[in-house]
Amino acid sequence: MDGTMMRIAGAHEIRVILGVSRQRVYQLAARDDFPKPVAILAQGKVWLIDDIELWKAEHRPPAEHSTGNKEDHSAGSRTGSR
Prior knowledge:
It comes from Paractinoplanes globisporus. By secondary structure, the protein is of the alpha+beta class.
């Protein structure tokens, strides 16, 4: 090793990173295009966070941060009709 710290994550951390359920993490992990775990421990598989973040950038659409989605528009139109 070159002295740099490896950032690793288990299923729980990946769930948080991807915004999915723990069950969905295991479904994704079974896919051929999902990063391979770097180790299998007694508590489960672990992956490099950098690999997961790269996969997310390539395969998941960015989260919408604006308030201009359809739900917000429809809520605003209902408010004005009361």
